[in-house]
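Hello, quick one for you while I still have it in my head. I'm working through a protein record and want to make sense of it properly. Would you mind checking whether the tokens look sensible for this chain? I owe you a coffee for this, so here goes:
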Amino acid sequence: MFPRFVLVCFLLTFGSVSLFSQSGNESHGTSRASGSIGTSSIGNFLEFQFRPKTRDLLNRETGFVPNSESQMMNAAVRYYQDSGRLELTRLNAIRMFSLNPYNSVSKSKSYGFDLGAESITMRTLSSWEGFIFDSPKKEYHRITPIHGEAMAGYTFQPGSEKGGSPLLISLMAGVKSHIHPEFKHNFRLGPEAVLNVLYGIGDFKFQFYYAYHYYQWLQNENDFTANLKLRYSVSLNQELRLEFLQHRVYQETLLSYHYLF
């Protein structure tokens, strides 16, 4: 099933026309390769990431539609030191965001869409240890389910009618799903509420992303995503990034170098 899914995503991706690029003399490269080191609640890890096209929200915007993201077949693999194995951490077959500032003139809406696969951390309770010690031992393992997400809402930018400030605040609602045999009913699906904040100044750009995912109605555990990112542009096609990520049962810190070409 999974190889067939990857093939379908590949055909969808390269059969699509990018809606987000535009002409510009100082635009960054649309392909990306990055290397990362990180530490997490389940051990230290190394990560390699490759994207054949085009850009994400933390890249420079010159030469592209502002406040947009369009990633095609972005893939990341990790090696966790404690487990001693490689994992497919992320595959964004198609990932798009368009954060259009709302004002009295444009009344624009914002949206986001993501289709692919992503690794998540699952918790297993050891019931016999909970019976003896009255404190269930928590065991964690990683799975890589098929993933789909769609959201829509509004983005607010102070002074957007007069050119705008470097601050963008997006409020969106949507649906997120994962398909994997370890979930009740083999999948989890539920509504989500999303807050996304972007602030850029000079060669620095900050992003704070928070989403709450409600899965309990299908007997799966609710979750949340809290993500803080800092990007520094070393040059037009080189970036350093520092990221902090937290879910209900997992957290990590990541330092990465990105080369765009």
About this structure: Confidence is low (pLDDT under 50) at residues 5-24, 129-137. The CA atoms of residues 183 and 220 lie 7 Å apart.
